[in-house]
Automatic annotation (TrEMBL):
Sorted UniProt keywords: Glycosidase, Hydrolase
Descriptive protein name: beta-galactosidase
Stored InterPro entries: B-gal_small/dom_5, Bact_Beta-galactosidase, Beta-gal/glucu_dom_sf, Gal_mutarotase_sf_dom, Galactose-bd-like_sf, GH, GH-type_carb-bd, Glyco_hydro_2
Reactions this protein catalyses: Hydrolysis of terminal non-reducing beta-D-galactose residues in beta-D-galactosides
One annotated Gene Ontology cellular component of this protein: beta-galactosidase complex
E.C. number(s) listed in UniProt: 3.2.1.23
Originating organism: Propioniciclava tarda
UniProt keyword Transferase present: no
Amino acid sequence: MPLHPDARYVTDVAPSSGRLVAPRADLAADSAALSLDGDWRFRLYPGVDEADAAASEVGFDDSDWDVIDVPSHWVLRGDGAWGRPIYTNVNYPFPLDPPFVPDANPTGDHRRRFSVPAEWVESGRLWLRFDGLESIGRVWLNGVEIGVLRGSRLRNELDVTGLVRAGENVLVVRVSQWSAMSYVEDQDQWWLPGLFRSVTLLRRPDAGLDDLWVQADRDPETGVGVLTIEVTADDAAFPVRVRCAELELDLTLNHARASVEVGVVEPWGADVPRLYRLDVSNAVESVAVNAGFRRVEVVGDAWLVNGRRLRIRGVNRHDFDPVEGRVFDEALVREAMLLMKRSNLNAIRTSHYPPHPGLLDLADELGFWVMDECDIETHGFVHVDWAGNPSDDPQWREVYLDRARRMVERDKNHPCVVAWSLGNESGAGENLAAMAAWIRERDPGRPIHYEGDHSDEHVDLVSRMYAPLEELVRLTEARPGRPIIECEYVHAMGNGAGGIAAYEALFDTNPAFHGGFVWEWRDHGLLTRTPDGTPFYGYGGDFGEVFHDGSFVCDGMVLADGTPTPMLAEYAAVVTPIKLAVGDELTVTNLRHDSSTADLVFAWVHEVDGVAVARGVFQVPAIEPGASASVALPELALDAEGEHWLTVTAALREATPWASAGHVVSTGQRKLAEVARRRPTGSSAAVAEGDGYTLGDARFDRRGALVSVGGLDVTGGGVTLWRAPTENDSLATMGSYELGDPATTGGFGVPGPSSAERWRSVGLDRLTTRVLSLDVSASGLVVVSRLAAAQASVYADVTQRWSWVDGELRLEVAVEPSDGWTVTWPRVGVHLVLPAGYEEASWFGTGPGENYADSRVAARVGRFSAPIDELTVPYAVPQETGHRAELRELVLTGGGLPEFVVTTDDGSDGRPGFAVARHSAEQWAAASHQHELSAPTATHLYVDIAQHGLGSRSCGPDVRPEAALWPRALAGSMAFRVV
Ligand code: IPT
């Protein structure tokens, strides 16, 4: 049965309708407002047709309805009684049949009574504001229908003057999950219906300051500021006074618009977010505006702010919380933004809709370049080659234009907004072109961005996502004289992304590159429970969805619970604007936008084998943005035995609003010398004993596998080539270097099986061992074995030379692949199984975080210690984690167990790295959530001679050739000791 005529509005292709107020700026006014947040009566219907027509009537009895708090998403309340969240990425979770949506269209009636004081209705106007509701709302006030609201992440205001009564009023909002608008809101995120942003009744005085636009320009040459103020209000609203004590400004406007020169001003920028507070007032209302003086321009291939090219060290950010969904919490968001600042991030793309306005207030205050993106995405049409795409269908033109208007008008006063983005992944078309034209006309002061149309005709910034290096280089030729950015890159899903430093190095080669925005800030795991009550962060499929996109919603630099992943530290180290080159001297380069290095202390420490022996501070002159300076290294004594390292840090001299004094902005390191140690000689003989062999204090079984060391159960010791695939190993959305020649494929390679699929196809996850020979001699035990998988003709031969020297068990390993391998190897590692119970690890090697061949910038050489549980990262999907390259010495302690010590040698293939974990690669690979891992029964130690890089192939380029582990002869040596 088709929709009842009364319910057909849900499939109308139209902007909001009803008693709408023209879109206007988000203003901090002193006029009264009544928050309607809090408890509302709530009833959920299976479809819009089933909604109770009488519910809109004033006298309707809702006393038996449920209660819901606003703002909220009803699917995140009610313990499943009100439905569950659904996750899809590109796909629509309903048939592609625009503008229609399924009959099963969860529809929630929200009812609230509120009282207003009598004087509110006696004079002036009353406006009802909705900051966000998903995806469509029909609204009645005191039984009168006042509007149909569309545009989930955009503000709507309705003029309800004359409808509000003194005393009790009844507001009813009927929100449906699906509507025609869902076709243009196909962002990669949870579908979360509800009244998820505030509802407010505003008392608007007659002749109030309805809309204001303050443009604060600053001449980059002279520093002179010009304020242009535009007031949209009744004639009776004038004169309007604009005051700013700091600027000694007191201006009276008698008409809508005025410009005034205010002398030399300090610029607003992401490094130094200098705001001037303006008071704009008239007889009835006063509004506070934070003005930031800056000029944004695109000149040739330069995207300039205040005359300097921007370098975007950015991140894509969604409004997201694992409990509340898209409901905004100022304190939590501030905390996250402080962490961004401490991680050297200076820019945010508000993927993929205008954020809660509070985000922009924080960005103004703390200093972030913001790309404000409109609430438009039609990605699912890509599956039908964009046939019927709303972006190019005249029927949708007004919807697109309306959204552009509502974004620009709401957010126009924010100095942080330095670009408007038309939306995301919506193909190409006339409606996008019309949006660009409207925005350009309305606000020529900010460039326009949109990635989805690679003709780049309607935009000021040439933008790509996940483009590999080669594609970016090609773009500089294809789009000469234009600024280039990556609006999404280095996909932070699971363990990765690797290869960040290669982008940074490329960006340094050509000024047309303005940097990029990481995809993305945070995993969108939603807090839920297993049937037996274990809490966990769920992803697609964990909420009973029949059709979903799995863990692709967990791809952030911080986990769902807010814990930073190692990628955040890696990104911070790669993009730091303070470059420290420690060579024969220290060279400091300042790539900040607008502050010198005067706020930094440059300290050094000299360590021998990771132990500090001397410290000092460099006298570095204040370096201006874009400049460098060099100073001499300290004179140091380098005769002690061991490795001599000089580590330099640039740290904050004083606390800032985002970090405490001493916060490290950049680190540089150099090995100064290595004075060789004397090595003990003289080894014990191996002897056959019982069912196996004895070598010093070590025992082996009859096939030469380790059984114990110094009386401690230490088993295995064989070579493994397998790692639990990362999501970059197991997903292959965008092609692979393994298959494609970068020169002919633009660098993406051609689509092909993922690394994990290839690895499994040759049985790397199920290798078997056959001992080829076992030599027992006076110098030890030599075991040669062959690793191969069922039905495979390729193999690897492993030679293990065990010896007992000076109280420790030494192992030299050599691995030799057969001919015919066509896949990379995940790792070449020695796997030892120790008793469960070890608690702590301390090591001399690289750290503090995990690091791989293509993610090693944040790692430094030194001594570190950590609880074993913190050596691995609980990614949403269990996967390879915890590798730290170039180990020298590792000590495991705790659990009442004897100390277990591992040392390595620096050989022809470098020093092995290590990982210690509660679970094995096989156990990780078999689980799809952390809570599926069984209780630990062992401590797993991997000493890796090599590991494959990480890459970014879950969405982007594969591991680059220089970090790929192709089968080759490899060797390493290590020693084990029980104390
Ligand atoms: C790109 C999307 O813009 C973003 O929303 C997110 O889905 C990201 O990828 C992956 O996590 S689209 C991709 C198919 C290039």
